[in-house]
Specification:
223 residues, Spore Coat Polysaccharide Biosynthesis Protein SpsA, Chain A, binds cytidine-5'-triphosphate, alpha/beta, binds magnesium ion, two-stranded antiparallel ribbon, 24% strand
Length: 223
Amino acid sequence: MALLVAAGQGSRAGGNVPKQFRTVAGKAVLAHAFDALAMCDEIDAIFVVVGPEQEEEARRLLIHRPVAAFIAGGADRRGSVRAGLEHIAQIGGAGEVLIHDAARPFLPPGIVARLVEALKGAAGAVPVLPIADTLVTDDGGVAGATVDRSCLRRVQTPQGFRFEAIWSAHQLWDSPHEATDDAQMLQVRGHDVKLVRGDERLFKLTYPDDFQKAETLFASGRR
Ligand code: CTP
Ligand code: MG
């Protein structure tokens, strides 16, 4: 099963509506993300987390699609994921869950299969990419140490988890700091999180320019 989180405001992306409701290549970003998950044989149910005032719009954009349930999200991403997991737990969900950002319209083939394969030997798995740019510390406006980037990775979604492990990690999370992602919460509980190969096309719409990038990618037919 999959949990698609779509309850954010998209403040960095600007625009009149949250980014997941905007149109790219003739279709809402949320619908692109949903349809890509729905194409995967490994995924049997997709739960969608939306803001309390956004459910009507989400239902309209996902009309005629087999949404397992719409769930009211939280004030931050962690709260939204937690609400989704809680719903799944209440209906007796088990097995594996993929947690995915609705703000990622592209899900290249192979990603989900790699995650599911990795989950045979670990409680969590995430797609990652290397870093191309040189990394340097900012020492008050002056370049400080150059950081060795060879062992650093950028983490994408979907992230795959054994349901019981990630649900328990969310319930136990008590750090005053925001968790940057779900895999981090699993690691805190002592679980291994496997790394699988990610894909540049899986990028997240974050800033205004990212929409043009997405249009170009769809137009190029590289999906
Ligand atoms: N998300 C969510 N609930 C929140 C915040 C974020 O479900 N309270 C979702 C977003 O809808 C998005 C994903 O988490 O699909 C990744 O978050 P991000 O890119 O940060 O989206 P926003 O929080 O919407 O954007 P911003 O931080 O720029 O406001
Ligand atoms: Mg955010």
